Amino acid sequence: MTSLVTFDHATLGYGRRVVLSDLTFSISEGDFLGIVGPNGSGKTTILRAILGGLKPLQGAVTLAPNLRYGYVPQRDQVDYNFPLKVVDVVMMGRYDRIGLGRRPGANDRRLACDALDHVGILDLSDQPLNALSGGQKQRTLIARALVGQPNVLILDEPTNGMDLVATTQILGLVRELHERDGLTVLMVSHALNEVANYVERIALVMDGGFRIGMVDEIMSSSVLSGMYRIPVDVDSVNGHRIVVARRDDSQSDIAHTPQSYIEAHVHAAAEPASKPDA
Amino acid sequence: MLDAVLLFREALYGTVVIALACSVLGVYVVLRRIVFVGAALAELSSAGIALALWLAGQGIALGLSTHPIALSLVATIAGVLFFGSGSGRGRVPPDATIGVTYAVAAAVGILLISKAAHGEAHDLFLQGNILGITRTDTLVLLAVAIPVLLVHAAFYKEFLFVSFDRETARTLGFQVGFWNLFLYFTLGLVIAFAMQFAGVLLVFNFLVLPAVTGLLISRSMGGTFTWSIAAALIAAVVGFSVSVPLDLPSGPAIIAVSGLIALVGFGVRLAQRR
Question: Nearest CB to A73: which of B157, B167, B218?
Answer without folding.
Answer: B167
